[in-house]
Structures are given as C-alpha cells and as structure tokens.
C-alpha cells in the first residue's frame, strides 16, 4: 500500500523524499502501475499510452506496441521523436527495477536502423548496464516483433536523484 501511494502521488517532491527510503528496485506490477500513471495524465508522456509493459525485473524492461497512425511521421514510418521517447522512458523503467529512486536524463543517443510502418508491432527491450550511486547506464533495442529485425538502438545515461 505504501508503494502504491508513492506511485500514484502526483507531487514529485513527495515522491523524491519517499523514494529515498528505497534502495531496491521495483517489480513488474509496480512498473506497470507507474507507467499507467505517467501515460494517463496530460503531459507529453501520454504519447506512450499504447505501450504495454510485459516484464520489468532485475534491471530490464520488456514492452510491446502496435504502431498506429498517431505514431507515424509524414512518410508513414515510426516517428523518430517517439522512438527517442520510447528509449528515454523504457530505459528509465529498466533502471527503476534496480534502484527505485527517481532518475533524470543526462545523455541520450539513438541510432535509427530500419523503418517501422503503421500496423507493425514492435518489441522494446531495455537493459540496465550499470547502476552506480549517482548514475545509471542503460541500453534499449527496438525490434520488429514479427521478423526480429532491429529498428533502433539507444543508450542513455541517467542521474539518480538522492
């Protein structure tokens, strides 16, 4: 119940203070609840509403999404900005499974390798490479669910708030 309060409390300052007491990571259900909470508000994160978290544990997060018209650019392919947002948020989820303290982006890099079109289903695998006292290093691979071909790869460094 206490963890649910943390995940659903909209006051960031309260979340930061309360998360300081946790040094272990969150589990799949916690990440699913947190993800649902951040994607159903009126902030930019609502663009991620169609993503389903499959598994989140031990420094990794696996999710999937069907690409729909709202996700594509003028050429009909998965929008690069959405791809970068997926890398940003899903690597943050992966890090939260190692260290549940809030984190913020320090550096992000995305390589776009292949297009994904409207109607394709994508699989997102985010991994925590290293989690230190103040920084987390993560990677993400977005692939076509049907063929396994890699659509994009990303790396992110995150600062862990104290």
UniProtKB/TrEMBL annotation:
It holds the Pfam family 4HBT. InterPro entries: ACOT13, HotDog_dom_sf, PAAI_dom, Thioestr_dom. One of its GO terms (molecular function) is fatty acyl-CoA hydrolase activity. It comes from the Eukaryota. Residues 76-147 form the Thioesterase domain. The keyword Hydrolase applies. Keywords: Hydrolase. The keyword Plastid does not apply. Belongs to the thioesterase PaaI family. PANTHER family: ACYL-COENZYME A THIOESTERASE 13, THIOESTERASE SUPERFAMILY MEMBER-RELATED. This is Thioesterase domain-containing protein. The lineage of its organism: Eukaryota, Metazoa, Ecdysozoa, Arthropoda, Hexapoda.
């Amino acid at each position: 119940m206490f963890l649910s309060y943390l995940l659903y409390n909209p006051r960031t300052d309260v979340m930061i203070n309360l998360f300081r007491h946790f040094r272990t990571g969150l589990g799949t259900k916690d990440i699913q609840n947190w993800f649902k909470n951040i994607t159903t508000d009126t902030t930019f994160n609502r663009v991620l509403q169609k993503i389903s978290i499959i598994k989140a544990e031990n420094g990794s997060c696996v999710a999937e999404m069907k690409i729909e018209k709202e996700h594509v650019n003028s050429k009909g392919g998965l929008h690069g900005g959405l791809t970068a947002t997926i890398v940003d948020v899903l690597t943050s989820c992966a890090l939260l499974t190692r260290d549940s303290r809030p984190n913020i982006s320090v550096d992000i890099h995305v390589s776009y390798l292949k297009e994904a079109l409207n109607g394709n289903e994508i699989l997102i695998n985010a991994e925590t490479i290293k989690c230190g006292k103040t920084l987390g290093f993560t990677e993400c691979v977005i692939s076509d669910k049907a063929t396994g071909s890699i659509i994009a790869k990303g790396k992110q460094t995150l600062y862990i708030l104290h």
